[in-house]
Amino acid sequence: xxxxxxxxxxxxxxxxxxxxxxxxxxxxxxxxxxxxxxxxxxxxxxxxxxxxxxxxxxxxxxxxxxxxxxxxxxxxxxxxxxxxxxxxxxxxxxxxxxxxxxxxxxxxxxxxxxxxxxxxxxxxxxxxxxxxxxxxxxxxxxxxxxxxxxxxxxxxxxxxxxxxxxxxxxxxxxxxxxxx
Length: 180
Fold this sequence. Notes:
By secondary structure, the chain is an alpha+beta fold. The protein has four helices and eleven strands; from the N terminus they run αββαββββαβαββββ. The strands form three sheets. It has a seven-stranded antiparallel β-sheet, with helices on both faces. The protein has a two-stranded antiparallel sheet with strand order 1-2. A two-stranded antiparallel sheet has the order 3-11. Strand 5 (66-70) and strand 6 (75-82) form a beta hairpin. It is globular, with a radius of gyration of 18 Å. The chain starts with a helix and ends with a strand.
């Protein structure tokens, strides 16, 4: 019986880096948590109810820093973090353009967020939203936000994919990440 405990305890400590909550802090993976601490990013856990860590990937995005799935609402939450980002608008546009279907006509709406909201809530110097159709997946909509911290040259792009997204209301998931 003691031998089993010696085997299970190290396994539990290894899997704790993949758990969702530890008290008030959130741990998705150890690399992502370390990246958050190094770049000054906070996660509001109340914006990500029912989301679970997944090993999914998206063929058009390449490496993602975080990929969460809410299976009951059929939503995917993707985070990309660009350190040393000199032109955040261009990087954001390229992330969004890579997901869009370039062959069909569709509308893309960019919204400039209120400067006060950016400075007080996001604590970011630049932000934008876009709504678009995903390449090869006509039934899925995408909604993206990018924000940039000029002091650290870090840009965070958040992409939300879902069957239905509100057209005139920013989904709550897009408020989950912000700079400290």
